[in-house]
Design brief:
By secondary structure, the protein is an alpha/beta fold. It is built from 8 helices and 7 strands; from the N terminus they run E-H-E-H-H-E-E-H-E-H-E-E-H-H-H.
């Protein structure tokens, strides 16, 4: 069974936070979807709250410290990324964007990414399409069609709201799993002698 690495980026500021809760649910759903497709997965969480000062220092000095380098390596070396941000002032949070700014602009090229966001009201739901998706499109990441937004009512709005959120999570996780499992294995150097005719064919003049 192939084992994939799934990096989860959570930009929530509270402990606990709805952002981390959504991130964990998306990760669990994606692991389940991958297993249904015959692949295993390991999950590595990057909690940006723990790296806030490291990110600020790196933006000022241009040199990330060891802890931030490890976080960056986790994200850029993963088979897929789940990126979840809270909504601040009708856009992604400053911490979320600052971490993205620390990444090399080519580091996520071709990487499958599931986008998600949390906010206090559903009025912010389009932030995923007008702010977050364009950001990852600039980085040339492969974002899955379904982005998951969760407002306060999704957590406390009764069974109907909870079921709708669960359905979005399941759909997005399935899309991410499909992209990950559909990716070809790493290209290996071609054998220069693959198409060389045999000596017998050369003697018969059939090559």
């Amino acid at each position: 069974m192939t084992t994939r690495t799934l990096a989860v980026v959570s930009a929530g500021l509270g402990v606990p936070s709805s952002t981390r809760l959504l991130a964990d649910r998306l990760a669990a759903a994606t692991v389940a979807a991958l297993r249904e497709r015959g692949e295993d997965a390991t999950v590595e969480v990057v909690e940006l709250r723990e790296h806030a000062r490291d990110v600020a220092d790196a933006l000022v000095t241009g040199f990330p410290n060891a802890a931030l380098r490890a976080a960056v390596a986790t994200v850029t070396g993963a088979d897929a990324v789940i990126a979840v941000t809270p909504v601040f002032t009708a856009s992604y949070s400053g911490l979320f964007k600052s971490f993205v700014d620390v990444l090399d602009k080519d580091a996520l090229t071709g990487t499958p990414v599931l986008l998600a966001a949390t906010a206090g009201t559903a009025r912010h739901s389009l932030v995923l399409e007008h702010a977050v998706r364009p950001l990852f499109s600039y980085l040339r990441a492969v974002t899955v069609p379904t982005a998951v937004f969760a407002a306060s009512e999704d957590w406390a709005g009764g069974d109907g709201a909870g079921q709708e959120l669960a359905a979005r999570i399941t759909r997005a996780a399935g899309e991410l799993a499909d992209v990950v499992t559909g990716r070809p294995a790493a290209a290996r150097p071609a054998d220069p002698f693959t198409d060389v005719p045999s000596f017998e064919d050369l003697l018969r003049g059939t090559a």
